[in-house]
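Review box. Two proteins, two foldings.
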Amino acid sequence: MDETVFLAHIAEDGREQTVDEHERGTAELCAKFAAQFGAEEHAKLEAMRHDDGKNTDGKNTQGFQRRLRGGPAVDHSTAGAFECFRANAVHEAICIVGHHGGLPDVGNAKMDTPEDGTFFGRMKKAMSGGIEEPLGMDRPITALPRPNFYGDRFYESVWIKMLYSCLVDADYLDTENFMSGGKAAREEYDDMATLLAYFEKHIAPWANPQGELNKKRWEILSACLAAGEGPRGIYTLSAPTGSGKTTASLAFALKHAVKHSMQRIMYVIPYTSIIDQNAKVFREILHDKNVLEHHRGIVFDKEDKNFDSADYKSALAAENWDAPVVVTTAVQFFESFYANRSSKCRKLHNVTNSVIIFDEAQMMPSENLLPCVAAISTLCAHFNSTAVLCTATQPVVDDYIVKYAPNIAIKEICPEVRRTYEQFKRVTFEQAGELDDVALAARLGGHEQVLCIVNTRKAAQAVFNKLPKEGRFHLSTLMYPEHRQKTIDIIRQRLTDGEVCRVVSTSLIEAGVDIDFPTVYREMAGLDSILQAAGRCNREGKRSRKESMVTVFTGEHRAPRMLKMNISAANSAMRGEEDIDSPEVVRKYFNTYRAYLGDGTDKVRVVEAFEKDKVYGMMPFKTVAEKFRIIDQNTRTVYIPLGKGVESIARLRSGEKSRKLFREAGRYGVTIYENQFETLYYSGCIEMIDDENAVLINTGIYDEKMGLKIEDSSNINFII
């Protein structure tokens, strides 16, 4: 090899890519990505220096060129970062230093030592001669003017992370393209104008709606289409349960994306239980290839030999969210936003210049409310995105939005909120006070068709066991999805046929389950949960309001600790009110709840960590990534080998893995908490498939009515 030629990659077929070729290819892509938020030149700079550390021949040290031919691993990230650092291109240097190992904590310029893993520690190590100097470098660095962050350290941290995301995605893609010989099988998607045309064709038959309810839904849909022509910013869609918010919000998103030449639509959904059905709706309207469903329950493995072409393309798209419509969970979205690893961060830049719909926005976790809203606001204020907070019970977060997006007005898509809610009033509320299990079961037994929603699985089981056996049903997430769905199908049919049907369920039925009862009982919870439950009563408006009763009661079982503030705020807001679903009462509830939370909306002080160096040190990317979790408690999946799940689960046990297989087996999986998983493991009831998943081998503990029976050693009643 000529000493002046330094290689970045060697393909399996022997082809060679030089460092210069790789950096220029990466720079082209990186600049294209960063153009979405006006940072092209910064992106070019970081990309053109990110692999300078590969210009080491290993004559006197273990250089990268030796590594290419089987030598030991070497640090090739610090050299280019140090070159940028010396030229005062600090932001670019931070991105380069972490482009493989993850964004580090920036640290303390005065206190950090060369032994520290912080950015400043790495720079001090380079200063002291702790890295090999790259050879043949004759490209001087000219630092670029920094964006005006207006003293907003949080915005600055997000800008760095976006620049980092552009770099790592461009790096991956250029490498992928070279190694595949330009044959990487990424999907070719339809553009937004075409997707809008698909949508307009889909809704065309609805233009002359029949029936009052469908007329009202068309009115909301039309309002969303009109609002889509409005400016970028932050919107709210305050529409009651049953008003068609999912389709209406898609109407806004498509119209808005076409109007402003935006690159994609993101749907962020709080429940994995409803993500499948929403994604299915979008696929039916927009065609399968244009919709990426990405959450923990979908396993993507590019190396799987059982993958078909569509699977492989989806696996590639999941890495960087480059599909025009991405449906994901709040966990995936926000934990990716605060992540520091390259594999998680590479997709973030694709959130810029996008329409982001937050479905059931009131479900944003209270202990992480501030970091979630800060992320949304910053994306809209500085990265050309538009957010829609879509909910039947609009949370009160205006003050947080104003803090992080002070120049953006919050616009309501359906401004006549009071009239809209009045139009969709389909039930009468009753506050029944305290009811023990016996009294509750007696009242439920007096109805031919009734739904009762309680706060814990323990309460659900207790009440269910006291009901008359004829026509009684139980629902919880301890039943695998296929079992739950079959039960729901039976319930729907019995409701249609006028047969006896008494259902006791945990909160899983409150959102995303299209089911219609004449009477609903809801154990005291947050007002948002109560109103979601009310959406299962007289859903299609076929009965009069007086005939459709929603009874709110306090049960005998102790409320879970995590619900106590919600219940207290709901009691305060509902006291003396007949119309507990009015916008005024709902707003009072959220204001009261926020007052109770006080400073408890940022549990691990994420935002403060970036705003103030005193929390975890300067720009603590790594530390925050380790601490920030939407869901604190880890969960695992237990597959239940019953019914049609026997075959697919047997294939999993044999070592076979594919997206299709995991999707099939997932219909027979139960997600449980870590302590519950350990209980089953140490009792010999399950067999491990991999580090996260197991198969139930003692099927005798799966009940055809109740689902998986677990003796919880911690004696905690979890809400699922």
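Next protein.
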Amino acid sequence: MTLLLSLAARARRLLFAALGGLALGLPAAVPAQTLGAIMSAAPAGVFQSDQTRAELLAHAPDGAGPGRTVWLGLRLDHAPHWHTYWKNPGDSGLPTELRWTLPEGVSAGEIHWPTPRKFPIGTLANYGYDGTVVLPVPLKVSDNFSGNALDVKLQASWLVCRQECIPEEASFSLSLPVQGGSAGHGDLFAAMREARPREQPAGASQLVPEDGFLRVALDGLPAAWRGRDLEFFPELGGVIEPGAAWTQAWDGARWTARVPLSPQRFDSPASMDLVVAPARPAGEGPGEPGARLAAVPVHGSWPAAAPLPTATVPDALQAALDANAARASAVPPGGATPASALTLGAALLGALIGGLILNLMPCVFPVLAIKVTGFAQHGGDARAHRAHGLAYTAGVVLSFLALGGLLLALRAAGEQLGWGFQLQSPAVVAALATLFTLIGLNLAGLFEFGNVLPSRLATLQARHPTADAFLTGVLATAVASPCTAPFMGASLGLAIALPAPQALAIFGVLGLGMALPYLLASAVPAVARALPRPGPWMQRFKQFMAFPMFATVVWLLWVLGQQSGIDGAAALLMLLVALALAIWSLGLSGRGRVVMGGLSLAALLALAVGIGPSVLRAPEEAAAARTDTGVAGLAWEAWSPQRQAELLAQGRPVFVDFTAAWCVTCQYNKRTTLADARVLGDAAGKNVALLRADWTRRDPTVTQALAALGRNGVPVYALHKTGQPVQVLTEVLSVDEVRAALAAL
């Protein structure tokens, strides 16, 4: 099995590289309703929604040649009453994030944040921007840069809020000439430079924590501010209570304030970076230019930090969250929002390619072995080949449509299900293991159906070969469909949010892609002519094909062990042994058939009653959920939303592995990339917490977390860090990809 996993993964990687990710790289974190807008807007360099208009601007009056500094900026035009966030968003929200792709020899600096405004929302307050704002970033071009143009790509994400909040994301690109300048937006960049807080030495300024308050004393502020009310913006979030009442006063040239500490404070810094600015400036956009004091020292001891937060949230924030949920769940007349022609076309092409790749998965190999055996039985009968190819294709496509339709119907009824839900049921896994055991025993020659079944039933396969090919397609889909998620994650996540006709089209094309190689082979006479003529070799080949069947049974037993524990797997294995004995005894003749058949069937029935319930019973929770990695201080923990929130509140990055025992790609990644000493060492060095979300059994909480990431199947790998949008890695992990993501923390 390990060899098959390795070969399959290698083949998939080669295909991915050759195809360049065509149609499979749909944005992971973009809501389905905005996907089409982003795809169409990005090439034009402008993103447009009902809440914001975004554009990437450049200011390079002296050109972008070697040794130059080029200024780029994301311009955000907010609709009335909407705002985005500063580097410290306040009580809620997320700062805007810019991820650059730059040529070699070019590096991007930090955002030069303009002075923010304060936005009260009930008892809460946020820090951010409304109206028009430009977030400028300097690009440093090295002295050894070569090229005629500087090609820049930007992936930007932001959270735009009123009472409700909507995440938005867009891609931009610019090509700046090395010779010649670009100064068309000079006024905007000049205005943003003016809006940036002036750097000011801390001098004699100090911060003194008290019981429940932070006493602030700042010296050296502009003389023109004396006597005016100021606004206080700490760059470190979670220390003060932004929306609470506070006091301030002037003592000559010294400005003092008494600011309430946050009840959920976790940090106790020795110094703080902060911005102060005149309060309540008129207009929109950035606030009145403020002053920034870096590393203002903290004197005295901080009060004891608060315990970890509970699941409760303030009433005002809960109201905003409820409004956001209502907006997200609102469906226009006629059902879900249809995808654009471009988006749907990309998803359909991705589904076709994904179906083709599916034939390389180890879980499909045993079923393909059945088809190879059937193919050989017909020798040079081209007509029979074509009939079987069409029937097999129909079985696969209709089964994918049935699974997709059932999934859509159950989700519409309120069920939290994802792709591959059939293998989340121990009963289905046990039934498949039983079926593959029977097929394997038949192929190995232990019994013939004609000896244990009535003649009419035993000859069904011979009398209806086309129906047999159709049912083989159904079986292939049942076993193989969960394996599609590793390379169809984004497309399947999109399909779930589409109207039923568009979603079913994606599922149908996925099935067509899986059946396409066999369909084409059945239609090409040269394939049939290349096969050896029927003869004794077929019997040996048939017996050999029993072993892939038994290997699949081993895999299914292991899956069941993850779902029902070792007792459940052992119970099923015992039942399979008893079933094999019963099948063998029914193939005997005379008195032996009656005696042995009766005894074996009675034993099978007794075992089914006695130990059968263990197959479906959920195992008791393990006393310890941690799994050692072999690296000091680093272990895998069981995922839960509460545990993830606790770790993020402690300031630790969190890596979440969404996995399932029946997901072959999950297990391959688990034993290779996620067990690599270099990856684990990097994670330990960055103090990253490792969480594993097990989806082997149905778990609505995991399903909801996957949906929030734009996914509907596993594997999914998500890297979380407080203050940054979640980063979703590719499904087929590489060591370099994970190490690069960890290094960027």
